[in-house]
Amino acid sequence: MNAPVWLFDLDNTLHNADAGIFLLINHAMTDYLAGRLNLPHDEASAIREDYWHRYGATLAGLQIHHPEIDIVEFLTQSHPMPQILEKLTPIERTQTLLGRLKGRKAVFSNGPSFYVQAVIENLGIRSYFNLLAGTDDFGFLYKPNRQAYLTVCQLLETKTQNCIMVDDNADNLYAAKQLGMRTAWFGRKARDLPFVDCTAHDMAALENWAAQQGWLEAV
Fold it and tell me: Which residues contact 32 (CB under 8 A, 6 or more apart)?
């Protein structure tokens, strides 16, 4: 692999979503479900968490159990962008690493495309990416759904074997490895597993691994 295609997750990979953004989104999702399904707030919160744990995304549970819900409306209402952007927290050395990595780069997120685009623009890193892909760009599917990965590769006109998936979620990386991708588990929870090629607790560690593979431009 001379010049790989880098597929970056967004939340807790390119910015610190745990610094308040996930809490905002979760509250907004719960408020929407409580109003739309006419439920007490605690029951709506329990449904949101149940779907997330059972299917990997609240969106997936809604698609299965509540076809009457407008998915676009749900995603819009559950991502209050002004409040989200106020809490946007960059991850140290991200811009430096993106500027040095060889190969094309894409954002591959389970979030909606309007959220992906706004976050990347406000982080000031839009120019490093060839593609910004959110769930509506791959048929409202979501990682670790196999077809989501294949659709993103089609959009990039590349094969899965040419890609490196950088993600903070082990299930997403397992699916990527099953498709022939190389994998980098990013974040504080990362650890060595058979389907993980790189364990990177921060951008410096990911940079070191890329340098060892010959995928880093000289300074």
Answer: 74, 77, 78
DSSP 3-state assignment of 131? strand
How far, CA to CA in Å, does 197 sit from each of 2, 93, 146?
17, 21, 19
The tokens of 202 are what? 């921060």
Architecture of domain 5-16+90-213 in this structure: 3-Layer(aba) Sandwich (3.40)
Average pLDDT of span 190-216: 97
Between 34 and 1, the higher pLDDT residue: 34
pLDDT at 2 over 90: no
Least Cα distance to 11 among 23, 22, 25, 26 occurs for: 22
- Distance from C-alpha of 40 to C-alpha of 51, rounded to nearest angstrom: 17
Q: What is the DSSP string of 2-70?
A: -S-EEEE--BTTTB-GGGTHHHHHHHHHHHHHHHHTT--HHHHHHHHHHHHHHHSSHHHHHHHH-TTS-
Range 19-85: architecture per CATH: Orthogonal Bundle (1.10)
Residue 218 confidence (pLDDT):
81
